[in-house]
Amino acid sequence: MSTSDKGALTFDLPGGVSLGVVVGGSLSEGIEIKLNDDASVEDIPVGSYVVIQGEKKRFFGMVNEVRLATTDARLRTTPANLTAPYVAEVLSGTAAYGTITVRPRLLLPMIAGVEADLAPARTVPAHFARASKASNADVAQVFGVEDDRHFAVGTPLDMEAVV
């Protein structure tokens, strides 16, 4: 755990960049993740890969929705006076925040990098499970690496990993 620039607690995960925590969702509609206040919706495109560290399982999925939300509906109809930059900074990440929806597709081994068979995700992570951007190692574990029997077809969005 660490503290963000705004003083909020964030979770450091091995491999990928911490994004936020699970706050709801379903297997069919996707898992809703409330973003950390230092994670911008502008940096998380639809189609990017995410790993969710559950209590007993690691889930590999894809972002299929990016959303802005507020804790108070009045902020949508009567936005705060933002002439003072401090007001926007205080509201951002607390009263106004971002969420992403991730469709879990596969279960990964609990320990990143351990060789094991991947299985389809048939359940969802628990509330407050931590989510991070998938690391290059996570993507390689799912898609494999180029060798004399496999060829590369491209790279995932916003990543260096070759799949």
TrEMBL record:
<dbReference type="InterPro" id="IPR018538">
    <property type="entry name" value="HerA_barrel_dom"/>
</dbReference>
<dbReference type="InterPro" id="IPR008571">
    <property type="entry name" value="HerA-like"/>
</dbReference>
<feature type="domain" description="Helicase HerA barrel">
    <location>
        <begin position="19"/>
        <end position="72"/>
    </location>
</feature>
<dbReference type="Pfam" id="PF09378">
    <property type="entry name" value="HAS-barrel"/>
</dbReference>
<protein>
    <recommendedName>
        <fullName>Helicase HerA barrel domain-containing protein</fullName>
    </recommendedName>
</protein>
